[in-house]
Amino acid sequence: MAVLEVAGIKSFYTKVNADDPKIQIDKSFPSQQFNHIILCVPFAGDTIWLDCTSNNPFNYLGIFTQDRDVLILEKGRSHFTKTPALSYSDVREMRKAKIRQNYQDQVLAAFSNSSRGEAYEAFNLFITFCE
Question: Fewer beta carbons below 10 Å: N end or C end of the chain?
Answer without folding.
Answer: C
